[in-house]
């Protein structure tokens, strides 16, 4: 039995906060739900903010001390907030919420009800993407093709794909296996998606929309400006994950097959990033260097990228002479 089974807190939510005063009231307010406050633990990790983030967080911690916990720390990057949240968590389950996003209140209540009777290692929920530009929304259901409510990871279909907006883990799985995310680095949510999978055996699909993901804020790491500033940190994260799962390409079981496909897809996204940021000789050299690394160190991923991606194939076929053309094409298609 899970060692936290008798804990009154069902879900611990770790909120990464860095200069999000403008958004935090909506974020924390979405967690302040009377029907579930005794079952929810909200860990607000202030990562050295320079605005009023900490003061606003303190107000919520004072308003509902049994629900909100404030960790005020020096800046260490997104990964450091996840590590602090895992360390402090006391709930049976654990999930992330970014400081500029929020929960669907009705969905959160239903999710807590589901978790009260759950025992699986990983829970997959729906989420909503909310676009700042015009307010339109998109519902995402990463579990819609899963042919079961509860089952084993090895029973997942080949095209399964889960991101941090959908994933909740059993807290003891993270703690007992010392899951640790890279600090002082962007894009480490991908480590949260992947690192715990070594110990995930059972999965539950919860058909409820919980997370509301704000898209289009200029400071986001997925904005073009954010990508340009931090794209090499994505290289760092990918290389770390390649190293941890160095034999995933062997695909001896469904989990390794999933991990390998994750690598191919994330690597394709990363190459696309090089084609979205500003066109320059430096960025072109970085792209060529990354592709050369893949060819030498990750030949299976390199091979499958060539087979699956027309723009990768065109880059290699032209010896990167099509870099400028592809940059203009990809920039028009980029939606964030």
Describe the structure.
The structure is a single chain. With 336 residues, the chain is α/β, with parallel strands linked by helices. It is 43% helix and 19% strand. It is built from 12 helices and 10 strands. It has helices spanning 21-29, 53-63, 78-88, 105-116, 171-176, 189-194, 224-244, 254-276, 281-297, 299-308, 310-317, 323-333; strands spanning 11-17, 40-47, 68-73, 93-98, 102-103, 122-131, 137-140, 150-152, 167-170, 202-215. Strands 1, 2, 3, 4, 5, 6, 7, 8, 9 and 10 form a 10-stranded mixed β-sheet that branches. β6 and β7 (137-140) form a beta hairpin. It is globular, with a radius of gyration of 20 Å.
Per-chain topology:
Layout: E1 11-17, H1 21-29, E2 40-47, H2 53-63, E3 68-73, H3 78-88, E4 93-98, E5 102-103, H4 105-116, E6 122-131, E7 137-140, E8 150-152, E9 167-170, H5 171-176, H6 189-194, E10 202-215, H7 224-244, H8 254-276, H9 281-297, H10 299-308, H11 310-317, H12 323-333
Parallel strand pairs: 1-2, 1-4, 2-3, 6-10
Antiparallel strand pairs: 4-9, 5-10, 6-7, 6-9, 8-10
